[in-house]
Design brief:
The structure is a homodimer of 364-residue chains.
Chain A: E1 15-17, E2 31-32, E3 43-52, H1 54-63, E4 65-66, E5 69-70, H2 72-86, E6 98-107, E7 120-123, E8 132-134, E9 147-149, E10 152-156, E11 162-164, H3 171-179, H4 182-196, E12 210-213, H5 218-229, E13 235-239, H6 242-248, E14 256-259, H7 265-274, E15 279-284, H8 292-297, E16 299-307, H9 314-323, E17 329-332, H10 340-350, H11 352-363
Parallel strand pairs in A: 12-13, 12-15, 13-14, 15-16, 16-17
Antiparallel strand pairs in A: 1-2, 3-6, 3-9, 3-10, 4-5, 6-7, 7-11, 8-10
Helix pairs in contact in A: 4-5, 4-10, 10-11
């Protein structure tokens, strides 16, 4: 059953508040229309699990903890109230959401997603913009975990992206990989461009030297593997301590693993230079503030920096490069690149070292 | 007279606080060494005028205004105290600085700047990282203007950029142009890349459609002129009101001038589409928050957004593109591109329309 009136591929037709001239995109909206009937380009998902994002869950749990005792029923009631009131699971304090797993229940005749009824999928956009209704009162959730077993439905817009859960991988592993899949996809694209530059063209540096700050992490290790496949020359991983170096070195994902504080301009650039730098492509995967100028200093003139850290400060990067007279291209790490989920899952499948790092996280 | 010990091209050798492992770049430092003796790669400037940046001057003036009366001597005393204490003019509240005009007094034998003694220059990096000492007590300044007549000296590091003031342009006009010269230089580079893409290559869109948000402003109008010269196809300028449309339309800098609120996702994308969009290259020159998702929606898949606004929020851009499944390249507007000052001054010289807009600002 589909709605008749025109829909927007980005979901504006489901925004209930605010309306009119002040209308916002669904993420910024106060309230969404979560009714199950579909517009022709939409998809309905039967929900199986909500994965609240870490920041949101922490805020909610703290609110409902007294003297070290978590009041699970109260936490559950608040999550239910948020979803009922807003038509989406967006923590009003943190603004963040999470993602969900479910099964495709209905596909509108004009849906461009390519999804089919019965497929098990994970949404690759935030719950903070996904229309959602819960029908089981979250009865199976005790409030003690970010993973929320749930019954109900969610709506995907024409442009909402979701990925089929692969049959050959542990779903928890697949989710972890898909959560950071934008990074390796963009790294692959950028490194390929350098590697393919013709002699004399801009970007012609031969096989580019790539430095990944936070190389032992989830997005970092996938970025290293993607850079290698895309034709990187020397691969340098920067890690903060001996433990991460011991973890990463034996994998061979990087040609050199160096310990440095990514917030230290001198420390970082010396470490990268000592390992064969400066880098033609620097990938920032460490979620701490203050890495902008150090990353700029560690990058060669004419090089590219890809910032994936949400702790990146726009002005610090822009003014920092100017102050250092650094002719570097600085990219905001877009979490979406076509085919990003498949690319990341393939890297895990084909690269035992990456897979080992991820499986190690599952166990811990 | 030059110092013997090794210097750093980015000025680390002049950082007095903090030192040791916690050493920062000069911009983040609490205190710089502003002594006039040069290291071999440095340049000393005899200062003529300081131009405090608008945010810094406003904060200082507000602090020293009581019942609508500005206490000029107190303001002057505070600026002197800041410079004496920090070795640079960096407002401790806003963190910002400004720029300066002066004459080259001495050039170290290893300076890579190409400057010569006697040349009149403007610094193109912030005062917040420039060693500075004042010798006249700012006696000629009444505290009522951001323009501060001053005697003293400033130091340029090996990598500090400065531009000769041209003989053929009003220095006030030249300063205004140089203040925003990073924007047209980066726009020219990006638009040229699209225009030069071979058939079938990534970026092959023929002559790219370019949209400039804030097209009637300083960086916006220069960006329009740069895009035209670099081979743009359709040029769309977005302005907030009728007054700016009336100002910009007769110049012919854009093919179409449309009025839209750059913070409105629907309003902006419809305006750009109605003018021939979506844009292959979107240039954000409006200093208001909340333009990230609207700019993403107004940009074609495979397109590029260049954010020059200091009000840009990194996370809003990164998560916004992901939520919209927008395959767009997002660039942090680096204020430095080699040759940027000359490029911008040339645009003003050769383009009477741009020059007219800038001269209009001088008069108002």
């Amino acid at each position: 059953m589909t709605q008749g009136s025109a829909s927007s591929p980005v979901g504006l037709h489901r925004v209930l508040e605010p309306r009119g001239d002040a209308i916002t995109l669904p993420q910024a909206a106060r309230r969404l229309d979560a009714r199950p009937e579909l517009w022709p380009d939409e998809v309905r998902i039967e929900v199986e699990t909500l994965n609240l994002d870490a920041a949101s869950y922490r805020q909610l749990a703290d609110t409902h903890t007294t003297d070290g005792h978590l009041d699970g029923p109260a936490l559950r009631a608040e999550v239910l109230a948020i979803i009922a009131e807003r038509g989406k699971m967006q923590n009003p304090v943190t603004g963040s959401g999470g993602m969900l797993i479910g099964t495709v229940a209905e596909v509108g005749p004009e849906s461009p997603t390519g999804l089919a009824v019965g497929e098990r999928v994970a949404t690759l956009v935030s719950l903070s913009l996904t229309p959602l209704a819960i029908t089981d009162g979250l009865a199976r959730w005790d409030g003690r975990s970010e993973q929320v077993p749930a019954e109900g439905h969610a709506i995907l817009f024409g442009r909402t992206i979701a990925a089929r859960l692969p049959d050959d991988l542990d779903p928890r592993l697949a989710l972890m990989v898909m959560d950071v899949c934008g990074a390796p996809a963009l790294v692959e694209r950028v490194v390929s461009e350098y590697a393919a530059a013709l002699p004399g063209e801009a970007g012609d540096v031969g096989a580019p030297t790539v430095a990944v700050l936070g190389g032992a992490g989830k997005s970092g290790s996938l970025s290293l593997a993607a850079a290698r496949r895309a034709g990187a020359g020397r691969l340098v991983a920067v890690v903060p301590n001996e433990r991460e170096r011991a973890l990463l070195t034996p994998t061979g994902l990087a040609d050199e693993v160096v310990i440095a504080d990514a917030r230290s301009p001198l420390g970082l650039s010396r470490a990268v230079e000592g390992a064969g730098g400066p880098a033609d492509v620097t990938v920032v995967c460490v979620d701490v503030p203050g890495c902008e100028q150090p990353a700029i200093l560690a990058t060669a003139q004419g090089g590219t920096i890809i910032f994936f850290s949400m702790a990146t400060n726009f002005a610090a990067a822009a003014l920092g490069a100017e102050g250092l007279a650094a002719d570097v291209r600085m990219l905001i790490g877009n979490g979406y690149v076509p085919g990003h989920a498949e690319l990341a899952l393939d890297l895990v499948r084909e690269n035992a070292a990456v897979r080992g790092l991820f499986e190690g996280r599952l166990e811990s």
